[in-house]
Structure formats: structure tokens, C-alpha cells
Amino acid sequence: MPCFRCGARQTDPARGASPWRRGVRADHQVLVCPGCQAAHGWADDLDRCSACGSAALVCRLGEVECRDCGHTRDAVRDDPGGVDLVHSVAERPAAGADRPSDGGLSEEVAAALSRVLKRGPAH
């Protein structure tokens, strides 16, 4: 899952806790990369707990849970196609902009397989 703000892909973590942070946006689980966490107001686009106002939410098994106060509620996903979870409002591509549907993931996977299997570049 890419960072919802910049689209960076998470790489294999080093030992220890991951520097990536989880959050919820439009009742969907999202990740925030360390680079975006350094920006002021990085959590402004995340959903907030209705009980305590915290952005420390996780979404699992159809429920949204606050990690600060423990409040839970059902996740409501009326329009899954209408929310751009990968780009913040200011960073969304212009309407009609051509972008691969997988964000280049298929090319990354092909290149990784070529490296692992010691083949030439994928065509």
C-alpha cells in the first residue's frame, strides 16, 4: 500500500518498528511515509475519532477503532470509487491526466523478478 499523500511505496523494513504510520481516511486504512510525517499538518487529511478527536485510528474487519481512547464504530464505505486515497487534495492529478492504473507497480515487480532471477531487463 503506498503513502496516501505522496504515493511512495513502502520498502522492506529494517529491524525494529516501522517508521511508517497508519491512519484512516474515508473509513479506509492508509499509510503515511516518514517523509510526509515530517511535513507540518501531515495528519490534517485523516479521519478523527468522534469521541476524543484523535487521528490515531485503525480500520480492521469493518470497524474503525481509536488507538487512544478505544472507541469503535462501524466503517461506512458508501462510495469506494469516489475517494482518492493515494493523493491528498492538493496533489491529485488533473482530471483526465494519464496515469497507469497500477501506478507503475507491474514494472517494479517485473524489474524485481528480473534481478532475483538474474535475467536481462523485462520487455
Helix and strand layout, with pairings?
Blueprint: E1 21-25, E2 28-32, H1 34-37, E3 57-60, E4 63-66, E5 72-74, H2 105-116
Antiparallel strand pairs: 1-2, 3-4, 4-5
Organism: Actinomadura monticuli
Protein name: Transcription factor zinc-finger domain-containing protein
Would you kindly provide a brief summary of this structure?
This is Transcription factor zinc-finger domain-containing protein. Helix content is 13%, strand content 17%.
Query: Which class of secondary structure composition applies to the elements?
Result: alpha+beta
Distance between the termini: 25 Å
- Classify the beta-strand content into a percent band: 15-25%
Q: What would the average pLDDT be, to the nearest integer?
A: 79
Number of helices: 2
Largest sheet: 3 strands, antiparallel
Low-pLDDT runs of 5+ residues are 85-100
Organism: Actinomadura monticuli
Protein name: Transcription factor zinc-finger domain-containing protein
Question: What features would you highlight for this structure?
Answer:
123 residues, three-stranded antiparallel sheet, alpha+beta, Transcription factor zinc-finger domain-containing protein, elongated
Describe the structure in your own words.
The chain is an alpha+beta fold. Helix content is about 15%, strand content about 15%. It has helices at about 35, 105-115, and strands spanning about 20-25, 30, 55-60, 65, 70-75. The strands form two sheets. Strands 3-4-5 form a three-stranded antiparallel β-sheet, with no helix packed on it. A hairpin with a 5-residue loop joins strand 4 and strand 5. It is elongated, with a radius of gyration of 17 Å. It starts with 20 loop residues before the first strand and ends in a 7-residue tail after the last helix. The model is unreliable at about 85-100 (pLDDT under 50).
